[in-house]
Amino acid sequence: MQNRVITYSRNAFLPLTSVCRNRCGYCTFRRPVGEGCVMSREEAENVLRMGASAGCTEALFTFGEMPEQEAGFIDHIEKQGFSTVLEYCCHLSERAIEYGMLPHTNAGVLEYDDLEWLSEVNASMGLMLETTAEIPAHRNCPGKKPEVRIESIENAGKLRIPFTTGLLLGIGETESDREDSLEVIAGIHKRYGHIQEVIIQNFCPKEGTAMEKWPVVGSSVICETIKTAREILPRDIAIQIPPNLADASRLIGCGVDDLGGVSPVTIDYVNPEHPWPAIDELKVIAGERGIQERLCIYQKYIRKGWYPPVLGNLIDKLGKDIQQRNEINSLNNSQ
Ligand SMILES: O=c1nc2n(C[C@H](O)[C@H](O)[C@H](O)CO)c3cc(O)ccc3cc-2c(=O)[nH]1
Ligand SMILES: C[C@H]1O[C@@H](n2cnc3c(N)ncnc32)[C@H](O)[C@@H]1O
Ligand code: SF4
């Protein structure tokens, strides 16, 4: 995997709701229940339309965890014509498929049954483990308890959902906690075989949060963690870093395989102060390894047929589309 080409996915980011039952000390994405706390159908359709015309292959649904547990939320979701955010997500996933994009959902922790029916319209799903350590940043976060996250990731394995997980670095964990978190992910993958990528994401302090002045981890810690991840994780798991948060060109040499989802039509709503590099810049970051587009479901899982029947034709078509684009790009490079 070390010398394989660097990959990325072209996506359109839809933050369906900012309401969340957790209170992570590092997060500015979360907002209280109020006007505009649910993305309207019109806004969502706009992002899907723009994404499709920009050649995106993935619709990324990321939002607050179990928002229905927050008082007054139901009124806001009902205004869009749904009784839960997952019903809304399911509807928009179907719309995304009609627009020609593969849905990938990161909704936080989900109940087994919810995971099961949402997976019927998703090509892949994700949930960051964050860390196996009990840390103050996760006080008042029922969904960030390590055992709760681990169970959810295992459930995705039982359901054969191609899965993205990862670590958030510098939130109060120690070096040995990072090793422990990676061992846990490796162990889950050995049992279920569904982890396609692990994100090594560095925490970025945000103004107005409890962790505004919290020290950040430097590139050397990120690099060490990537190397440790490469040692601990099975070879078939890709290591992803977000190119808008870290010094990606330097970290490539540490064992990175992938630059994750990059959205040409929206900002990164979780890290709005960090714009993504332009798609042309990804080529510079990847250097001699070269850069190629991938789908949100990796080849291995396409071959195994780990996707719902409704996605068969679209996966086939998009696979051919990106193959053609990748060939044209590599031809241009060799001229
Ligand atoms: O733009 C972002 N994309 C995030 N993504 C998107 C991700 O980079 C891509 O959608 C996947 O690589 C799938 O192609 C996540 C996906 C997950 O499943 C879990 C966590 C994340 C976290 C982020 C994030 O913080 N910012
Ligand atoms: C969607 C993912 O975004 C990450 N996330 C949440 N807040 C921050 C932040 N301040 N800096 C970096 N990553 C963050 C978490 O790991 C979450 O699971
Ligand atoms: S990081 Fe996710 S779970 Fe934590 S408060 Fe923000 S939206 Fe909620």
The CATH architecture comes to Alpha-Beta Barrel
Q: How many domain regions? A: 1
Tell me roughly what share of residues is in helical segments: 25-40%
- Class of secondary structure makeup: alpha/beta
Number of beta-strand segments: 9
Remind me, CATH topology? TIM Barrel
Question: Which value, in Å, is the CA radius of gyration?
Answer: 19 Å
Mean pLDDT: 96
Order of helices and strands: EHEHHEHEHEHEHEHEHEHH
Q: How would the global form be characterised?
A: globular
CATH class: Alpha Beta
Which small-molecule ligands are present, each listed once?
Answer: ligand FO1, 5'-deoxyadenosine, iron/sulfur cluster
Number of helices: 11
Describe the protein in words.
By secondary structure, this protein is an alpha/beta fold. It has a single domain (6-334), classed as TIM Barrel (Alpha-Beta Barrel). It has helices at 41-53, 73-78, 85-99, 112-118, 146-158, 175-192, 219-232, 248-251, 279-286, 299-304, 312-334; strands spanning 6-14, 58-62, 102-106, 124-126, 163-169, 195-202, 238-240, 258-262, 291-293. Strands 1, 2, 3, 4, 5, 6, 7, 8 and 9 form a nine-stranded parallel beta sheet that branches. Helix 1 (41-53) runs parallel beside helix 3 (85-99). The longest helix is centred in the C-terminal third of the chain and has 23 residues, at 312-334. The relative contact order is 0.16. The mean pLDDT is 96. The chain binds ligand FO1, 5'-deoxyadenosine and iron/sulfur cluster. The ligand O=c1nc2n(C[C@H](O)[C@H](O)[C@H](O)CO)c3cc(O)ccc3cc-2c(=O)[nH]1 binds at residues 9, 11, 13, 58, 60, 104, 106, 126, 128, 164, 197, 199, 240, 260-261, 268, 270, 296. It comes from Methanoplanus limicola DSM 2279. Residues 6-244 form the Radical SAM core domain.
